[in-house]
Amino acid sequence: MTRTTNATSGKTSEARTRLLNTATRIFYTEGIHSVGIDRVIAEAQVTRATLYRHFSGKEDLVLAYLDQADRMMRGQLADAQAGTGSAVDAVRAVAKSITGGIQSQGFRGCAFLNAVAEYPDPTHPVHQAVLRHREWFLDTITDLLARIGDAPADADARHLVMLRDGAMAAGCLFDPALIADTFLRGVEGIVQSRMQAPTPVD
Fold first, then answer.
1. I need a labelling partner for 93 at 20 to 30 A (CA). Which of 21, 78, 160, 185 fits?
2. 141-146 mean pLDDT
3. Percent of the chain scored above 70 by pLDDT?
4. Listed residue (162, 89, 54, 86) closest to 23, CA to CA
C-alpha cells in the first residue's frame, strides 16, 4: 500500500488524508462497488493525478480504507480495556464499546463484513485483508476469555464473535438499543458460564 508523506514534516499528506477520509465515508455508507473513483476524486476535491500519486488505484484505496478501520478497531478495544481491574471487567468493557458503535449515528454495520460480501473471492487482496482482521479479532477475544476460568476459551470466543456479527448485522435493521442489550446479555452469559465452569481435571 502506498503512503505518501510530507518530506519536511514527515506527516501523511493532507491530500492523502482527505482522499482516504472521503473514500471511507462513501464506501461505508454506500458500498464499495457502487462508488467509482471519479466520485471520490470529486468529493475529495483533488485531481486524478493527486489520487494516483498516493494510491495505485481503487483497490489500493479500498485496502487503505480497511487498514484504517482495522487500526480504529484495535485502538477501540485497547481503550476499552485500559484501566479495567479484571478480565471480566475487560470483556464487559469491550462488549460495551461494541454496542457503543452499534448505537452511534450513521451506523451501517461492520465495515469488514460489508466489504467481504462485495469481494467473495478468497484470493482477492480485499478478502484477505478482511480475514486478517477477523483472525486478529478472534485471537483477541480468545485471549481475553482465557483469562476467565480455566476452561478452554476457543469455543466461547467463537460464540462471542458470532454474537457480535449478528449484532452488527441487526443493529442497522432494528432498534439498536434493543440489539445492544441483547448482545450484552449474550456476552454476560458467556462470562458467567466461564466463571462457573468446573476446573478441568488432568
1. 21
2. 97
3. 91
4. 54
Task: CATH number of the domain at 25, please.
Answer: 1.10.10.60
Query: In Å, how far from its chain's centre is CA 151?
Result: 27
Residues with Cβ within 8 Å of 109's Cβ and at least 6 positions away in sequence, in order, are 168, 169, 171, 172
**Both 33 and 98 in a single domain?**
no
Side-chain-facing half-sphere of 76: CA atoms under 13 Å: 15
Question: What distance in Å separates the CA atoms of residue 165 and residue 57, rounded to the nearest whole number?
Answer: 30
Residue appearing with cell numbers 518530506: 7
| pLDDT tens figures, 155-169 | 999 999 999 999 999
> Same domain, yes or no, for 52 and 63?
no
* 199, pLDDT greater than 50: yes
Q: Which residues pair with 123 in a beta bridge?
A: none
Instruction: Say whether both 28 and 44 belong to one domain.
Output: yes
- Looking at the structure, do residues 155 and 187 belong to the same domain, yes or no? yes
Amino acid type, 173 = L
Alpha-carbon distance of 115 to 23, in angstroms, equals: 13
